[in-house]
C-alpha cells in the first residue's frame, strides 16, 4: 500500500486530531512511498531500528517515537544516529503515543485489560485514558499479581496485603502512577500500571488500595502489536512485532 494512504488511515483510526499530546503523532520520518512490510515495536530505539532493517521493513510503527516536548531539538548524538539509520535505509517511522493508549479497541489499556480478564466499566484521568472496571469474581492480591506476572513474563513490584481481596480494579499502562490518587477516590481495590514513584508507596500503604507496578515497557507491548496486526489484515501487507526487552 502507499505510505500516504497508511498515514491517513492510522491518523483517522486513532483520532489523532482529537488528542492533546506532548509529542507529534503520526508519520515522524518519511521513507519510501510503498509499504509492503511493517515492523511494530514499543520504542524506536536503535536496536529496534536495526532489527527492522534486517527484517526488510518499509515502515516501523511504535508507541514511543521522537520529538518530545521540551527535549533538545538538535539532531545530534543518539537522536542523529537513529534518524540517520531510518533515512539511509529509506524506512518510515510512525509513532502514536496517547492516541494509542486511549483507543477503545486497539489501545494499550484495552488490550492489557482484556488479557488480564478485567471488565471495563468506565474511564478516568486526562482525556479518559485510564480505565476502571471489575473482575468477574474477587481474587486475592497475591493471585492477581501472579496473573500479571504470568502474562508479562516478569516480576511485578506489589504494594499491599497479598491476602487482600480484589474485585474493583483500575489500570493504566506505562508511567501512570500520577493517576493513583484518582483511582483511590474511585474506591477501587487495586491499581495496575507500569511504574511506581517513591510517594506512591506511602499512598498505597495509607489508603489500603493495592498498587502493582508491572513494567512500563511490559504493559505497553500489546497496543502497538495489535495495531500492526490490524493494519496487516486490513491491507494485506506483512507485519512482524519485534520485542526489544526493557527491564523498566
What's this, in brief?
The protein is of the alpha/beta class and 248 residues long. It has helices at residues 3-13, 46-54, 77-89, 98-102, 108-116, 141-152, 180-185, 198-207, 216-219, 221-235, and strands at residues 26-29, 37-43, 59-64, 92-95, 119-124, 130-140, 157-159, 165-171, 190-193, 210-213, 238-241.
Oligomerization status of the protein chains: single chain
Low-confidence segments: none
CATH topology value of the largest domain: Udp-n-acetylmuramoylalanyl-d-glutamate--2,6- Diaminopimelate Ligase, Chain: A, domain 1
| Strands, total number | 11
Question: How would you describe this protein?
Answer:
The chain has 248 residues and is of the alpha/beta class. The chain folds into 2 domains: 95 residues, NIF3 (NGG1p interacting factor 3)-like (Udp-n-acetylmuramoylalanyl-d-glutamate--2,6- Diaminopimelate Ligase, Chain: A, domain 1, 3-Layer(aba) Sandwich); 117 residues, Udp-n-acetylmuramoylalanyl-d-glutamate--2,6- Diaminopimelate Ligase, Chain: A, domain 1 (3-Layer(aba) Sandwich). The strands form 2 sheets. The chain has a 6-stranded mixed sheet. The protein has a 5-stranded mixed sheet with strand order 1-4-3-2-11, sandwiched between helices. The longest helix has 15 residues. The radius of gyration is 19 Å and the shape is elongated.
Amino acid at each position: 500500500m502507499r505510505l500516504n494512504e497508511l498515514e491517513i488511515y492510522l491518523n483517522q483510526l486513532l483520532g489523532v486530531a482529537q488528542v492533546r499530546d506532548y509529542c507529534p503523532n503520526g508519520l515522524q520520518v518519511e521513507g519510501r512511498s510503498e509499504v509492503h512490510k511493517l515492523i511494530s515495536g514499543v520504542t524506536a530505539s536503535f536496536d529496534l531500528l536495526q532489527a527492522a532493517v534486517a527484517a526488510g521493513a518499509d515502515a516501523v510503527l511504535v508507541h514511543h517515537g521522537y520529538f518530545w516536548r521540551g527535549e533538545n531539538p538538535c539532531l545530534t548524538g543518539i537522536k542523529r544516529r537513529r534518524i540517520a539509520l531510518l533515512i539511509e535505509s529509506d524506512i518510515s517511522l510512525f509513532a502514536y503515543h496517547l492516541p494509542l493508549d486511549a483507543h477503545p479497541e486497539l489501545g494499550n489499556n484495552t488490550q492489557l485489560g482484556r488479557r488480564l480478564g478485567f471488565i471495563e466499566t468506565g474511564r478516568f484521568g486526562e482525556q479518559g485514558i485510564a480505565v476502571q472496571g471489575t473482575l468477574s469474581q474477587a481474587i486475592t492480591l497475591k493471585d492477581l499479581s501472579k496473573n500479571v506476572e504470568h502474562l508479562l513474563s516478569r516480576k511485578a513490584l506489589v504494594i499491599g496485603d497479598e491476602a487482600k481481596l480484589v474485585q474493583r480494579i483500575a489500570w493504566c499502562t506505562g508511567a501512570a502512577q500520577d493517576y493513583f490518587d484518582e483511582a483511590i477516590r474511585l474506591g477501587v481495590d487495586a491499581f495496575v500500571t507500569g511504574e511506581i514513584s517513591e510517594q506512591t508507596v506511602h499512598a498505597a500503604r495509607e489508603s489500603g488500595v493495592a498498587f502493582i507496578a508491572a513494567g512500563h515497557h511490559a504493559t505497553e507491548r500489546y497496543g502497538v502489536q495489535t495495531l500492526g496486526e490490524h493494519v496487516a489484515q486490513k491491507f494485506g501487507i506483512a507485519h512482524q512485532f519485534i520485542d526489544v526487552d526493557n527491564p523498566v
